[in-house]
Amino acid sequence: MEGKDHFESSQQPTITTTTLNIHTSKMAFAWKAAGITYNRYLAVASRVVRRSLKEDKRIAAEKRGEMDLRFAKWEGGKQGEVKNLASANDAAMAQAAGQASN
Amino acid sequence: MLSRAARPAFKAGAAATTLRPVVAAAPIQSANYATLREINDRLKSIKNIEKITKTMKIVASTKLTRAQRAMTESRSYGETSQTVFNEAETKPIESENKKTLLIVCSSDKGLCGGIHSGLSRYVRRMLNEHPGDYNIVALGEKCKAQLGRSNGKEMVLSFAGIGKDVPTFSDAQAIADQITLLPGDYSSIKILYNKFINAQSYEPTIIEAFSEEAIAASPNFSNFEVDDEVLANLREYAMANSIYWALAEGHACEQSARRNAMDNASKNAGDMISKFQILYNRTRQAVITGELVEIITGAAASEE
């Protein structure tokens, strides 16, 4: 019980507290406030887990986390500029974070 | 690379088998050696192509086992994720003025028979039945090129770099994120992919990725006790799961289709090789006979 109280009172926006808070409190998720989507949040969490693995397992696991896609927006039947997906997603989330804090 | 190089050669080879006997039947004496060498050259090039297609078949077979394993694993992700909506009896919302988003899962690579054009054809049929109801997101260069030409106006996003290797969940997550960022409001999202039936057959199939309203409106959803707050998370995650499933299954189909295509190409090359070999031997015989006749007549003439 004490441990749970500690988590709620401290309200530190770390991953551990937010995951514990899913059912215990109405506090909005810290990562959501930072403009991060659930998928991105999972990707970050899984990257942390993969990096903390032992050397031999880590190399195999990190391969599964690779993502090197490009994308393009289309408008009026024409393909737009081809951009890197990872950087575009980061930029979009940073923008969302800016809007959320305003 | 190969397709452009190989097709003219195949065509020329096929034409040669039909044309050559006519030429060989009325040979000009001096041209005999040239045709012989020509046939030999062609024979060599077909043999090289056969080697390439055989190698590609072997590569595809090795990749296929990995792709199939990834597919079985991804299927459990996708099906588990879909169980929630089956149990909740979620139905896509039918509304007149909202569009449906169609995500087409192909890949960047060709030389695998008609699996990409099969998807494109399916999309076009859907678009013809309900014109103006769909927006398209193309995953992979192949369908992008095909649909971009015919239905460029409906395209909103295209992704490239898919199909180099077995798709990862990170790929699916990043794609799902970018799709959620789309400005349009869609009544439902359909993910179109090639369903793996067995090594020989596959068919275009649709997975539904429901919108938040559709999930919230489903009759049995209250049983799951999901807060409204986390509903958006569930939707995003479910979409990533479905996309991953679709990509992995599509990848397995592509590999098996490529294996079959290369198998057929090797078989055809083998047929052509045997045809050309017979033609080569016959022409060689004809040349030798012709020379013998010349020598004998020459000898008979000089004896007198």
TrEMBL record, chain A:
<dbReference type="Pfam" id="PF04627">
    <property type="entry name" value="ATP-synt_Eps"/>
</dbReference>
<dbReference type="InterPro" id="IPR036742">
    <property type="entry name" value="ATP_synth_F1_esu_sf_mt"/>
</dbReference>
<dbReference type="GO" id="GO:0045259">
    <property type="term" value="C:proton-transporting ATP synthase complex"/>
</dbReference>
<dbReference type="GO" id="GO:0042776">
    <property type="term" value="P:proton motive force-driven mitochondrial ATP synthesis"/>
</dbReference>
<protein>
    <recommendedName>
        <fullName>Mitochondrial ATP synthase epsilon chain domain-containing protein</fullName>
    </recommendedName>
</protein>
<dbReference type="InterPro" id="IPR006721">
    <property type="entry name" value="ATP_synth_F1_esu_mt"/>
</dbReference>
<dbReference type="GO" id="GO:0046933">
    <property type="term" value="F:proton-transporting ATP synthase activity, rotational mechanism"/>
</dbReference>
<dbReference type="GO" id="GO:0005743">
    <property type="term" value="C:mitochondrial inner membrane"/>
</dbReference>
<comment type="similarity">
    <text>Belongs to the eukaryotic ATPase epsilon family.</text>
</comment>
UniProtKB/TrEMBL annotation, chain B:
<comment type="subunit">
    <text>F-type ATPases have 2 components, CF(1) - the catalytic core - and CF(0) - the membrane proton channel. CF(1) and CF(0) have multiple subunits.</text>
</comment>
<keyword id="KW-0496">Mitochondrion</keyword>
<keyword id="KW-0999">Mitochondrion inner membrane</keyword>
<keyword id="KW-0139">CF(1)</keyword>
<dbReference type="GO" id="GO:0045259">
    <property type="term" value="C:proton-transporting ATP synthase complex"/>
</dbReference>
<keyword id="KW-0375">Hydrogen ion transport</keyword>
<dbReference type="InterPro" id="IPR023632">
    <property type="entry name" value="ATP_synth_F1_gsu_CS"/>
</dbReference>
<keyword id="KW-0406">Ion transport</keyword>
<dbReference type="InterPro" id="IPR000131">
    <property type="entry name" value="ATP_synth_F1_gsu"/>
</dbReference>
<dbReference type="InterPro" id="IPR035968">
    <property type="entry name" value="ATP_synth_F1_ATPase_gsu"/>
</dbReference>
<dbReference type="GO" id="GO:0046933">
    <property type="term" value="F:proton-transporting ATP synthase activity, rotational mechanism"/>
</dbReference>
<comment type="similarity">
    <text>Belongs to the ATPase gamma chain family.</text>
</comment>
<protein>
    <recommendedName>
        <fullName>ATP synthase subunit gamma</fullName>
    </recommendedName>
</protein>
<dbReference type="Pfam" id="PF00231">
    <property type="entry name" value="ATP-synt"/>
</dbReference>
<keyword id="KW-0813">Transport</keyword>
<dbReference type="GO" id="GO:0005743">
    <property type="term" value="C:mitochondrial inner membrane"/>
</dbReference>
<keyword id="KW-0472">Membrane</keyword>
<keyword id="KW-0066">ATP synthesis</keyword>
